[in-house]
Amino acid sequence: MVGQVLVPLHGGELDLPGPGRHRERTRTSPALIEACEEQGIHEIVAVISDKGAAGSVALHEKLGFTEVGRMGRVGFKFGRWLGTIYLQKSLSPKKKRRIFGR
Hints:
The protein is an alpha+beta fold. It has two helices and five strands, in the order E-E-H-E-H-E-E.
């Protein structure tokens, strides 16, 4: 669990792992958010590893995300325990999205 995971609820997942990808995230994230709105996505959630997360958290906050929770020591990778930081953003969907076939 290293890097960023952006999860549109009732949708998919984008994983941009590892440090040094800040420029790529800065460039692609606004387009991803707009695409989610076009598809009728209402909420998106970012799950970030807490190890060295200051840059990712700052980027998400700049994009309008709000921190909604933290979980400590929930993953083990490369010989160490990692926690997660959860951020959420409410979108303005451009169309109604049908959930569960209704």
